[in-house]
Amino acid sequence: MFGSIYIGLSGLNAYSRGLKQVSNNVANLNSQGFKSSTVSFTDLFGARQNGGLSYSAGQGSSGHGVRMGDTVFDMSSGELRQTDRDLDLSIDGSGFLMLMRGGEVAYTRTGSFEVDKDGYIVLSGSDYRLATLDSAGRPVSLSIDQLGTNPPKATTKIVLANNLSADSTVPQLVSNIKVVDLDGGQHVWQAKFERVANSTGQWTATVTDEKGVQVGGSPKTFTIINGRIDPATSVLDFTTSGWTVSFDMAGIGSYAGGNTSTLSAASVDGYAVGTITSLSVNKDGELEIGYSNAQKKQLGAVAVADFRDPQALEQRSGGLFSDSGGAGRQLLASTDPRVGLVKSRTLEASNVDLSREFGDLILIQRGFQASSQIISVTNDMIQQLFGIRGQG
Q: Does the pLDDT of residue 61 top 70, yes or no?
């Protein structure tokens, strides 16, 4: 009869532990990247062997209560919520972001990252550095300190387009051509096109800078035949201070248009020096720096870990996981379908299912009540047994 009390106590203990687990799940309802754990219970059976107890089922075995089952994580993805920070990262898939701190490695499903004083990308509030894959596929942490500026590139080609009026009686201008010199200095040029008097299809092109100084010496001559630029003169080179810029006019047409010019600079290459304006993860899962000169630089693919057995991971504070070596890790790039895509400006919410937790809560409560009732009834029976002595 006393065994019934111990069985009831095992129920109280198991359901108390179950309540703690449900409480932890519910309390982390709004914790980023939190993975809930499943509450389960398992029976205990014991058989007497050589005067002792062995907890194994078999002939002659009897129930010895209940215990809480092993913790099983729910690794399903939580909702991906949009944010306004480029370094808010999450994974649309089953992989984990890899974090490095000296010789220590941790993993997370999502997190807000920032650049620390040394230029490393770290998880906010910690010194865990985000890992990327180098050219050999090895995880490394990198600093952007040496990438603060993007060097300039001098303008070498200007492509002109549209119509150079064949019957215009005034010079035709293309203004506000923004170019960059060899030192990264920015200039605004103007190109002027005039028909050569008393000639057949002969034209001149003159380029001046923002100070009115003529670029490249004397005007350049080109020829128009049947409304098209003669291929032999379709590219005009203007050289100044050892710097040459080619005007490509192959796409220009020359037809009647009066004195209204539609000629324009369709494209101008080159760019000035740039400073960092953004740091994010692009659609290919690569860390990418954006500069003020509209240039971009890829720093490498974010390292994403795929685990053969995610249940072998150990859950830690702050949405982190650690691996003692039993989970079977493989590092892959973001574009690999086995791990999913790293997304910028998103954070993964907790995957706690509140309705399921409340259902488990009711079952745990009823189980606790039933176990306590067993102890109460057993106690009453023992009391009644003790009272037999005084009867008769």
A: no
